[in-house]
Specification:
This is DUF2971 domain-containing protein. The protein is an alpha+beta fold and about 230 residues long. The chain is built from 7 helices and 11 strands. It is about 25% helix and about 25% strand. The longest helix is centred in the C-terminal third of the chain and has 13 residues.
Amino acid sequence: MYLKNPSIKLPQDPDTIVWKYLDLSKFLELLLSKKLFMSRSDKFEDQYEGTFSEPTFEEIKKLSINNPKFLSYYKSHREKVVISSWHINEYESFAMWQIFTGNSEGLAIQSTIGRLENALIPDKKFKQYIGEVNYIDYKKEYIPFDDMFFPFLFKRKSFQYEREVRIISDISDSNIKINDGMKIDVDIDQLIEKIYIHPKSENWYKNLVIELVSKLGFDFTIEKSDLESDILI
């Protein structure tokens, strides 16, 4: 279990369903290594990732007048924070299939908030939290900065469709060096509740995934996505 932070928002129901959409190679790497890949926050496509809204930035600039290192620390801190993103949704998302699986050979991990919490294996070398992302107007709304995790739990409103929950690790106090990201230890059986195969995949692909998962010693329920059906009226 990870340490809870009462200041970080998370759905109260531990059975809230979350998803991770990925390709087969990344999925197999997860099973083989039993480690979850976390992306470095400043390597995300969104250039605002881990930054502040305009009202907050103005306040930080005032605080930095007599302490220039204050602002530079916030900028460099992004290099020391890694993130694993999950999508909250009761059902599969057609949009997420389109965005995160570039062909018909992707798959989706179905989990829950409670499973994510239980899957994390504590590591004394860094702090780690799970939080739900807040979507705000960066020109008008304020992001608190009394906790170093807060900038990574806010995104612009144009990203609301992501409905994101994040596992966030801060390695600032460790000697760990990262390039694009790092892997953290997880309990795979806790992390994964069910696997869904891409809606456009062939039956041979589903059978391949079932065989590979079985040979690796796991017995997850594996289903073909029902977003596309053979039954047409």
